[in-house]
Amino acid sequence: MRENTEEKTPYQKYQESGGIFNEGDYENSLEKSFVMLPPERSLNKQAELQAQEMANFAGLNGPIDRAIRLYGILRTDTNPDKKEYHHTKMSDQSLFAESLRMTNNALSLNKFIEAYHKPGIHCPICLKVPTSGEECR
Question: What is the pLDDT of residues 31-74, one digit of tens each?
């Protein structure tokens, strides 16, 4: 019996972590996040500051700069094709969690979810009021 030793693509790993973007949007957004402008020239400065505040609230530190940049790109993206389901309709926390998923930062994602996903309190990531033991997506 042969084992499947095929390496999973980054997009497959993203989907397995609960990612919801289609492959085209995923690739396009990540590609944009590789263009690193100095902070003073950022086109998404306000959105990036907002992401940094969410990260601070959750106690995140470490390598999250790319996720912050990606959040800024996603938050300021428009919906030119008028898609019914588009990330412009997502909550800020949900979109930042998605950017952590897209950058494959599971440790920060888990810590972020722990900070916001509390039983009996509306979770801005999964948009539910979770019961004890209920997981966030």
Answer: 888 775 555 555 677 888 888 899 999 988 777 788 888 888 88
Domain extent for 111: 10-116
The secondary structure of the chain as a DSSP string is: -----PPPPHHHHHHHTT--S-HHHHHHHHHHHT----GGG-TTHHHHHHHHHHHHHTT--SS-HHHHHHHHHHHH---TT--SS-GGGS-HHHHHHHHHHHTT-HHHHHHHHHHH--TTS--TTT-S-PPTTPPP-
Q: Closest by alpha carbon to 125, among 22, 30, 111? A: 111
- Residue 123 covered by a domain: no
User: Per the domain annotation, does 59 fall within a domain?
Assistant: yes
Per cent of the chain over pLDDT 90 is 31
pLDDT above 90: residue 97: yes
Question: Is 109 part of any domain?
Answer: yes
Q: How many independent structural domains does the chain possess?
A: 1
